[in-house]
Design goal:
With 90 residues, the chain is α+β, with helices and mostly antiparallel strands. Helix content is 34%, strand content 30%. The protein has 2 helices and 4 strands, in the order βαββαβ. The radius of gyration is 13 Å and the shape is globular.
Length: 90
């Protein structure tokens, strides 16, 4: 079942987000299998919203994401995973 994932790091700026993306690319995990979409939004409190093929696919990536967040100086993130009612917004 497809899932929606809302990721809210503590005090992530746009510069932090750019560093995070660079870290994920350097680690070779910036395009994980099973991720359907990714959006980042906000200025001083950047948040991310993703859709995934399944919770299992996201959970396989979660440790890589958390390690990258820590690598750029962000200690934690609230992560909410919810089943999607529709695989696409029609």
């Amino acid at each position: 079942m497809s899932v929606a994932v809302h990721i809210t790091p503590q005090h992530m700026t746009t510069a932090d987000y750019e560093d995070l993306v660079a870290e994920l690319k350097a680690s070779g995990v910036h395009e994980p299998a099973g991720r359907l979409s990714h959006v980042a939004y906000g200025e001083d409190e950047v948040r991310m919203f993703e859709t995934w093929e399944s919770a299992d696919r996201f959970n396989a990536y979660r440790d890589d994401l958390l390690a990258a967040l820590q690598s750029v100086g962000l200690d934690s993130a609230d992560i909410e995973v919810q089943a999607m009612h529709s695989p696409h917004p029609d």
